[in-house]
Amino acid sequence: MAFQHIPVLALLVAGAACVLGNIQSPINIKAEDAANASLSPLSFKHYHSSQSTYYLANTGHGCQITLKNWMYNPKVKGGPLHKSFILEQVHFHWGKNDGTGSEHYLNGEPFSMEAHLVHWNSKYSSFSEAATKPDGLAVIGFFLEGLDNYKNPDFQKLVNVIPKIAAADSSKVESNADLLAWAVPGLAPNGYFTYGGSLTTSPYSENVLWIVYKNPLIIGKSQIEAFRAIENEHNELLHTNYRALQNAENATLRYVPSPLL
């Protein structure tokens, strides 16, 4: 089934009005409501490069990873994507305790955190241009589940840098550590859900193709605490930064099984 383009109801530009439509994100993903789809495999390039240097920044509503050198632009294509999509940034959502924090739910249950890998359509000249187009954006979502007495060694590379940007007035930090290493195992051939929805922050534009992996990545509960120490723009601890669930009635949800099954 081809991805149905969704009209943009608000432009992703400074000062744009927040206009809500019919297919807002996040949603409660119900597996029983998802039609099975047979699509070409997703293909990832340059997501794990030892030659990359990263920036980590406090945005006032979370922490964000970007690349300093885009010589090796991470890209994804295949599956529901009709073009190659370029990675723009990665950010995270969490809650005040380990039982909540993800934006999407799976069969009525939240996870400890959710990571969003934000991409833009390579048919356009820039992220800014793509963000105003009906087929401009794609977000890959990973559920993150915290366990006791465990630390994910790849995720720890990111956690080690977070204290440097925790303060609201902190500058972005440059890091030679692979801040995306934790995501690489999740990009292996695994089952995922896909639907056309929106950004989960203002202006909530409905031009996002979502790819949400079914199986969570495992991290340590102690590693989540580092995110709760980040300050917001009001110099307060950012205990919660996720959007409430939206009505999924108009979402066309599909499930793409792992090709290894």
From TrEMBL:
<keyword id="KW-0732">Signal</keyword>
<keyword id="KW-0862">Zinc</keyword>
<keyword id="KW-0479">Metal-binding</keyword>
<dbReference type="InterPro" id="IPR001148">
    <property type="entry name" value="CA_dom"/>
</dbReference>
<dbReference type="InterPro" id="IPR023561">
    <property type="entry name" value="Carbonic_anhydrase_a-class"/>
</dbReference>
<dbReference type="GO" id="GO:0008270">
    <property type="term" value="F:zinc ion binding"/>
</dbReference>
<keyword id="KW-0456">Lyase</keyword>
<dbReference type="InterPro" id="IPR018338">
    <property type="entry name" value="Carbonic_anhydrase_a-class_CS"/>
</dbReference>
<dbReference type="Pfam" id="PF00194">
    <property type="entry name" value="Carb_anhydrase"/>
</dbReference>
<dbReference type="InterPro" id="IPR036398">
    <property type="entry name" value="CA_dom_sf"/>
</dbReference>
<dbReference type="GO" id="GO:0005737">
    <property type="term" value="C:cytoplasm"/>
</dbReference>
<feature type="domain" description="Alpha-carbonic anhydrase">
    <location>
        <begin position="1"/>
        <end position="257"/>
    </location>
</feature>
<dbReference type="GO" id="GO:0004089">
    <property type="term" value="F:carbonate dehydratase activity"/>
</dbReference>
<feature type="signal peptide">
    <location>
        <begin position="1"/>
        <end position="21"/>
    </location>
</feature>
<protein>
    <recommendedName>
        <fullName>Carbonic anhydrase</fullName>
        <ecNumber>4.2.1.1</ecNumber>
    </recommendedName>
</protein>
<comment type="similarity">
    <text>Belongs to the alpha-carbonic anhydrase family.</text>
</comment>
<comment type="function">
    <text>Reversible hydration of carbon dioxide.</text>
</comment>
